[in-house]
Known about the structure:
The complex is a heterodimer. Chain A has a single domain, classed as Orthogonal Bundle (ABC transporter involved in vitamin B12 uptake, BtuC), CATH 1.10.3470. Chain A is mainly alpha-helical. Chain A is built from 11 helices and 4 strands. Chain A is globular and about 80 Å long. Helices cover 35% and strands 25% of the residues of chain B. Chain B is globular, with a radius of gyration of 19 Å.
Amino acid sequence: MNGTILLNAIQLGLIFAVLSIGEYITVNVMDSPDLTVDGSFVTGAAVCAMLTLQGMPNLGLLASLLAGALCGVATAFLQTKMKIQPLLAGILTMTGLYSINLRIMNNSPTVNLFVGGKPAQTILSNPDTRLFVLLTIVIVIIGLLYFFFKTNLGLMLRASGDNEMMVKSSSINVDNMKFLGLALSNALVGLSGALLAQFQNFADISGGTGMLVLGLAGIIIGEAILRPKNIGMGLVAAAVGAVLYRILYTLALRLGFAAADMNLVSSILVAITISIPYIQKLMKDQKLVKGRKKNA
Amino acid sequence: MLELKDVTVIFNEGTTLEKKALDNVSVTINPGEFVTILGSNGAGKSTFFNTITGSAKVKSGTVLLDGQDITDQPEHVRSRTLGRLFQDPSQGTAPHMTVEENMGLAISSNRSPFAIAVRKKEEKLFKEILSELDMGLEDRLKTPIGLLSGGQRQAVALMMAVANPPKLLLLDEHTAALDPVSAKKILEVTNKLIARNQITALMITHNLKDALENGDRLLIFQDGKITHDFKGEEKQKLTLEDLIHCYDV
């Protein structure tokens, strides 16, 4: 792998780090994975793409945060006010978003970010500063979230994911916390989609497929390597994991894996990693049994 | 302080499982009273608590707290003035959050949402509060609370419940799941806190001895009704023997 390809992988990894950090909020903090992601990722990309074509790329990035947050609000509404199971609520929003995303993209399955035959000017246009810009965005997001999770509101959000029963009997409104958490998470997911659109100079209606698992892969790899003990390290680990996974992903492609196979690779990786503790326990138990029989 | 007027709660109304959990219950709890509550399973003790907290819906009657009708007030709103402790120590604390973060949560409701929850000042305050327990918890502020024993967790939960002195403290068999030594300790601290902060408190228990030795009033529930109500001197004179009689009727 030469330098340019590695640099490219790191930059993409940082974009997906924003996705993983967003998912960290639902998966780890709220303890309830959110399937809205595959839809809100595209919503962020679509909103940003359209505004970028209008000559407002930075407003597009801000708008993607807001659009993503709205997707999260929709899922939270289904979960709390209509009492639909979290997973199904996410699927319903994601499915509905497909139609909305297509509308945002003027009924075209892809939007190219070219103005007058040239790529649109964005904060990611200059290859010399691109890495710095992305790194700054990721660091600022981690910093803000780290601070937020130490505030009174942050503690309430964490507690409602950690022990819902306890929070229900306290003065904290659990429903409001779900709105807050899902909005925050999907805002970042939307931003990740928007950054990817500006990076690749196009937005794709099916670009969200597999994003939930991709983000999870980042979180899981980060956890396996850094073994974070607190929430600040957890956020850092998610970002590091996302970058590492993208580097591995690029390596796999260089080794001849087809790009289309990579969703399967991500799924298998996540499935195996999650079940490792259980498999380890099985092996340990078996050792015990064997040891006892030997001694008998 | 707390007043229930003709409160009836019915579960599974209109089905074969219909059960009157509370049957026309009226009772007034006075400020500063420490009331112990006895009754067999299904007598209505927990439902009584749940009508106060709002998790059980009232079919008829009214619930007044400090003269204010709270019968239909949402659970999280009235929780601001109630402290609550459960039988299961894991129910009252967030396991992956540290001791100081749990304590911070307890006092968070009337603070600015965007202020850092635990600064040096709060840390000092929590240390002070926890050292009163004499369990060494003041040195474990940074420990995730899930790593503590049941008794330690319940002790922290108790301190959390009274950190913002509540109008009313509800103790739902809060020592039943603990070993005898921890149970005794928690009960001691409970008495001390209630006396010092002059908290009005209700304590459900299945332990007749605990019901006799603690508090200044005793209620016995049976079939959704309050069948006995011993106050003041009457309660002081009460013996184990008397209590067993009350149960048998």
